[in-house]
Amino acid sequence: KATKIIAFAGSLRKDSFNAVLVKQAAEAALYAGSEVEVVNLADFDIPLFNEELESNTPEGVQQLKDKIRDADGLLVASPEYNGSISGVLKNALDWVSRTEPDQKPAFRDTTVALLSTSPGGLGGIRGLNHVRDIFVGMGSLVLSNQIVVGSSYQAFDQSGKLTDESMASRVEQLSQELVSTIQKLKD
Ligand code: FNR
């Protein structure tokens, strides 16, 4: 049975390093036999969360929510802002996490693989721990394995590929693990 993965970065920036990183992971997941859709949060019209807007869910929120509910797994690359998750990502997660009558919570039982990259030496590890806590709290199965890439300005070549081969192969392994974990859960 085909597995379906949605991949996205927690950044709206056109030249986002996290978008570049998640794209590489998405290609590896495709290679590992999964259906993969890379989405850009900037393409969804997601307002700042306000409970008052919930009586009429914004269309962009509904579109993202439907995609995530329909997927078996997620590849998420998050920037680290002030030692934590980006506001953009948290806002999107808060919207999508809201339950509707007779619908499964969108993140429950979703298998999630996490990545981050930042110009600093730690690559966003502090923020990624917060991202992990949030997904666990929403009922997702988050893989223990994760990818953290420091020195992002040096880490990627012109075509957006990781220059370090061992890091590139770790990204491949993470994506393979995501696909195989989803397959096992589906069997
Ligand atoms: C940052 N940046 C950053 N980097 C880091 O390693 N640790 C941090 O705590 C922060 N904090 C931080 C706060 C704010 C408000 C900004 C705008 C930036 C730098 C950040 O990692 C860098 O801009 C990345 O390139 C952002 O990710 P994208 O957009 O390239 O995916």
Automatic annotation (TrEMBL):
<dbReference type="InterPro" id="IPR005025">
    <property type="entry name" value="FMN_Rdtase-like_dom"/>
</dbReference>
<keyword id="KW-0288">FMN</keyword>
<feature type="domain" description="NADPH-dependent FMN reductase-like">
    <location>
        <begin position="3"/>
        <end position="151"/>
    </location>
</feature>
<protein>
    <submittedName>
        <fullName>NADPH-dependent FMN reductase</fullName>
    </submittedName>
</protein>
<keyword id="KW-0285">Flavoprotein</keyword>
<dbReference type="Pfam" id="PF03358">
    <property type="entry name" value="FMN_red"/>
</dbReference>
<dbReference type="InterPro" id="IPR050712">
    <property type="entry name" value="NAD(P)H-dep_reductase"/>
</dbReference>
<dbReference type="InterPro" id="IPR029039">
    <property type="entry name" value="Flavoprotein-like_sf"/>
</dbReference>
